UniProtKB/TrEMBL annotation, chains A, B, C, D:
Coiled coil feature spans: none
GO terms assigned for molecular function: DNA-binding transcription factor activity; transcription cis-regulatory region binding
Protein name: AcrR family transcriptional regulator
One matching Pfam family: TetR_N
DNA-binding residue intervals: 35-54
Keyword check for DNA-binding: yes
Ranges where the HTH tetR-type domain occurs: 12-72
Top-level taxon of the source organism: Bacteria
Record keywords: DNA-binding, Transcription, Transcription regulation
Signal sequence segment: none
Length: 213, 213, 213, 213
DNA sequence: AATGAATGAGTCTTCATTCAT
DNA sequence: GATGAATGAAGACTCATTCAT
């Protein structure tokens, strides 16, 4: 009577099983092509349970999105030690990012490949991405200030977009190549982004040729 | 006033109408959520014609993919004048790319946001992307050779991936901001990519701090 | 002006082409699975022509049915020479029947395999079959009378049904075995039917065992 | 009054209901003209259940075919008592056959009228028919051996084809005449087939007239 | 006379979602 | 708490049939 028999798993555990199953299925099928049946099967649970615990398919997908997004953010934020020189911060953030993608390929696929095109979730996703962009832009800004230089916020944001896009592109490649080394990817990305950003920060600038039409 | 009876158009015209409508609908709904009914409506034609001319939904999506992919490639390739210094080539290619995205937002959405996650099309898309990556890698290689330096092909490819990813990211931002200036985006991207690539090509290299764990 | 140019084939020829094409297609697909498109293609003619000449799909199928049915009847009737002893008449009729099936496999398939199950045509078919049954029953009757014996009409009809069924069964087998010899089949059938009917006519009769439950 | 809630029946029951409904509908409409909607209605159940339990329309038809085919075979085989004189065996088999057809008119229609013409099922059907043909041929063979005579296997098979065809023809007639007496039909068929086969087995043989052209 | 273009209507099939036990 | 049974709604696809040229 007092202590419940734990034969029937506690709610939290069940929910986690379901979410993991859902991420797996969504990652390989996409939102629409994934069926609640397949997800329930994958979780080894009956369909009504899924509804009871996590609500509609849309809510389920959103839950997956938030779980993976949060994990990713936490991985990155947890890796960035303040008070370090900011190139090292960038490096740590990137390394955490690539490590995460390497270790959570399914989650990455849901975030990057599936959520992007599905109307109802694109906004959620954009919001998460914005947070990352801002973080990166913030890093760059602090880097500039440290050098006594200054750039318009809009420019910073664009640069951050480019950096993040490049990192995502490499991460996506990583997700398809299980044997690739995440840390190596992070190093390459750092090289690319940092020297690029670095030389920009150093005031180097490329200008379009005059006769542009 | 004079003639326009909008019926009994010749096949080629109708096909183009349908493709355009399909791109529009696929771009805003995604492959699964788009219905053939909506596409037919958008094209101002009945569903059976769509099937008669373009085949199944999958074939239709593929047709959209190839049309937009080809247009994009042609826009870029047509803009790159050989015999120019290679930074200027890169610049022209990028400018053409951003202009294309600015002018064909729907097509871009189909290519970049929708096709990526849908299993049956991901391969087609990856093939197109590979062609671009190779072109970019080729440009970089020629740039290196011109400087008398050399980099492993694998490294080149990774760099190309990063560059393309960065450009795509900015392009995607552009697609969501109708007022943004494509040429300006191209300039920013050039700045970012070129100074980055430039400083790498110049031999600058970033190395991870020793105590990496 | 006076004599029409026969470039455009005369109506009768066209109609025959269409009917032949229709028989071919109906025989291999069945009524429902056959499409007017396929029939038009097979006839090398556009669909509206088919409608103009032969009317709806149902009318077309009926036309096929009647054509093949009539051909079959004419083949049989044309082969039966009156005034011959009636076993020889039966033989000639059977031989003509098997020859027809061997030479018009498609027509046979339409008659025997396709029309039977399709509600709107079963009646037409049954009517044709009835005519044959009656002919056969008539033959048997004349045979009996010649022997000074007599059998109830109902019994005769049943016997005719059995004979016709047996012949159809063999014919159907023949239709699937292009190398089989129609005359040989006719002989076998004659053997079977004639000795059977013959011994019945001769007054032999089998009776069920008494303890039937 | 007391209990009958007609809902939430166990799977096996529902499956049988569906099969019965399907046989009914297929028998009167044919495979193509039958709609899954009508079948579901007839079964008093919603369409998705039909798909869930019995699969596609084709699978459903096949299931009907096998059910009825099996029932028929079992009825016949169950009626044939070994160790009886073989004419009595034949008699019992025939009687069971006609009784079955009389009692399962729909099943018979599916087997004999509908399945024959539909390409994907003709093979299944032919296989069942072959089994019966072989059984009959076996009976005939044993009859011959008992008489010390012998006939080529091919001839036996043809004779079996004829016998089965005759029986089918009568059975089909029976299916359309609800008031006819199955046992009477069996007797007539026995008479026909047995005296026919009997006189053949006795060595009587009909030969075509010499001047055949 | 002849046909490419066009469609209304209908069918199979699937899926998210909910009862009843 | 847990699930087998059940369905409304919707979407892909096809086809007989008819215009307009």
């Amino acid at each position: 009577m007092s202590t419940p028999t734990f034969k029937r798993l506690p709610r939290a555990v069940r929910e986690q099983q379901m979410l993991d199953a859902a991420v797996k299925v969504f990652s390989r099928r996409g939102f629409h092509a994934a069926s609640m049946d397949e997800i329930a099967d994958e979780a080894g649970i009956s369909k009504p349970m899924v509804y009871a615990y996590l609500g509609s398919k849309e809510e389920l997908f959103t839950a997956c999105l938030h779980q993976e997004g949060t994990r990713l953010m936490e991985a990155i934020v947890g890796a960035v030690v303040p008070d370090l020189p900011f190139d090292e911060q960038l490096w740590r953030g990137l390394r955490a990012f690539f490590r995460f993608v390497g270790a959570h390929r399914d989650g990455w696929a849901v975030l990057y490949r599936q959520a992007r095109g599905e109307r109802p979730f694109a906004d959620d996703l954009a919001a998460m991405r914005s947070r990352i962009i801002e973080v990166v832009a913030g890093m760059l800004d602090r880097g500039l200030v440290a050098q006594g230089r200054e750039v318009r916020a809009a420019e910073l944001e664009v640069m951050a977009y480019a950096l993040v896009g490049a990192a995502e592109s490499l991460a996506d490649w990583l997700a398809d190549h299980p044997d690739a080394d995440p840390d190596g990817m992070a190093t390459r990305m750092m090289n690319f982004g940092w020297t690029g950003a670095g030389s920009m920060l150093a005031g180097h600038q490329w200008r379009p040729p005059p006769a542009a039409d």
